[in-house]
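Sync notes, pocket subgroup
Present: LS, DG
LS reminded everyone that the earlier model was apo-only. Rerun requested with flavin mononucleotide included. Inputs:
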Amino acid sequence: MRLGALELASAYLLSPLESVSDAAFRRLCWSLGAGFTWTEMIRARGLVRNNKSTIDLIDSFDADVPTGVQLMVANEKELAEALAKLDALAASTHPHFRNLRAVDLNFGCPSPEVIRVGAGPALLKRHHKLRAIFEVLQAWKKTTALPIGAVTAKIRLGLNRAELDQQVFLPIVELANELLDGLTVHARHAREESTTPAHWEAFAEIRRRATVPIIGNGDVVSIEAARRVMEGFGCDGVMVARGAIRSPWIFRELTGRGAGLPTVAELDAAQNEWTRRATELGSKPKYFEWHAEGFRRLRARLSGAAASGPELPSNEHMR
Ligand SMILES: Cc1cc2nc3c(=O)[nH]c(=O)nc-3n(C[C@H](O)[C@H](O)[C@H](O)COP(=O)(O)O)c2cc1C
């Protein structure tokens, strides 16, 4: 699959995942077949304010693994400042930022805190504002010294049911055609729980209008689901979140290289390697907590024992 100037090794992308997507996890998913990976959502405001804990989340140390940074912005000024900051840090104190290959903008996060400041899905129907934001991103891509091959956005189908019915996403497809290299569409509106069935019927019109690659997102947990999204609904690629959290080996299944679940020996080796890398790269404690639990649940699944409690460690993105 091609995304801007990037030739992806597969059409299966690892989602940006808060508290999950550290460099060591991205390498694991990439080694199993993910064609591209994203950092977790980075708040542009934190970057602009030089907030160390925000900057540390851009852990793009691993030059082998194709990685982009996902930014959460409230307006075009904030984006311009954040991108200038990225350039400055890459040129001085943070040489590993030079490994970044793409920038994605998040318009899907359902967090009330994000929506309250007018960011994320609150921007979906503000098409003039979105145009201004996309123009800043496109102009930066042409001038930055970073090897950015693609600029993209990740949207939902609207802030709520009314916006979905108004198809606020269609003008965004047109904007993406003009100003972006790809568009990821999470097939739900922002008030929907992740258990609500995805609205794939919206993709017929999206597909008809799009000239850029469309990446479908929502409930891809098997090769059959991925086929339906690509062949049935015409998506060029698929973005996987919970399926990869449950078992990173889903990328092996999707790319036709083997089973979607590891053997116990493969899991042992992967967990040891993840721990070694995460320790070496100084991953934040939250990633250790998440993955310790994730590996434990996967191990329980392999041994046939039901993991106790909710199916995944919880996070507000999983409402
Ligand atoms: C733990 C967790 C963290 C997430 N963090 C982000 C994030 O940082 N940025 C983003 O755009 N979406 C984030 N999401 C949403 C997913 O990228 C994805 O859109 C959603 O889970 C639907 O895909 P799925 O059905 O494959 O899980 C997160 C989801 C989960 C479960």
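DG: The beta strands are 2-3, 6-7, 12-14, 37-43, 67-72, 100-107, 150-156, 182-186, 214-217, 237-240.
LS: The chain has a mean pLDDT of 95.
Action: DG to write up.
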